[in-house]
Design brief:
By secondary structure, the protein is mainly β. It has one helix at residues 2-16, and strands at 26-27, 34-35, 37-41, 46-49, 58-62, 68-75, 78-82, 88-92, 96-97, 101-104, 108-112, 121-126, 130-136, 140-145, 148-153, 157-158. The chain has a five-stranded antiparallel beta sheet with strand order 8-7-6-3-9, with no helix packed on it. Strands 15-14-13-10-16 form a five-stranded antiparallel beta sheet, with no helix packed on it. Strand 6 and strand 7 form a beta hairpin. It comes from Roseovarius atlanticus.
Length: 167
């Protein structure tokens, strides 16, 4: 089956010029969910350890509820995560949520009424603001932050893949 998938992927690259179709998604051995994938901090504080158990040393403490994190590995009840700066380690799964959030990476971004740069600006978000994702189209995400809801370009956000579509 893998060989067949690889052949189909190679054919799609040749025809469409799109390598994303060729790669099989790696699945987590515990959850069978895609790796890597984005989640957020459920807790206001979470210890990030050097390895997947309570006996491992704490390297970091994430102190921000809703902070977007990327899961890169799974082991039992533990998930290896990283933040937008690449910092991370192992965290207990109970401290994580499937709620999708993003963090603003540009100095200042506009939230638009529609996924169109010429549409009305509803609000502006500064670098470091964490916003919940309502939905994402190909190049835009509809975000909720500070009581405002609007569309922002994906290129200014960390916590969502460039071609990812969320409904």
């Amino acid at each position: 089956m893998k060989r067949f998938s690889a052949l189909i992927g190679a054919a799609l690259i040749a025809v469409l010029g799109c390598p994303a179709f060729a790669q099989e998604t790696e699945r987590g051995p515990v959850t069978n969910l895609p790796l890597p994938r984005f989640v957020s901090m459920k807790a206001a504080e979470g210890n990030v350890r050097r390895g997947p158990s309570l006996t491992h040393r704490i390297d970091w403490v994430f102190k921000r509820r809703d902070l977007p994190l990327e899961i890169t590995a799974e082991h039992g009840h533990w998930r290896r995560v990283r933040d937008r700066d690449g910092q991370g380690g192992w965290i207990h799964y109970s401290l994580l949520s499937g709620t999708r959030t993003v963090i603003v990476e540009d100095e200042l971004i506009d939230l638009h009424s529609k996924p169109d740069p010429d549409s009305m600006t509803i609000a502006q978000l500064e670098m470091g603001v964490v916003a919940r994702i309502d939905e994402c189209a190909l190049d835009w995400c509809r975000l909720m932050a500070g009581g405002y809801r609007g569309w922002a370009r994906k290129t200014a956000l960390w916590g969502v893949e460039p071609g990812e579509i969320l409904e």
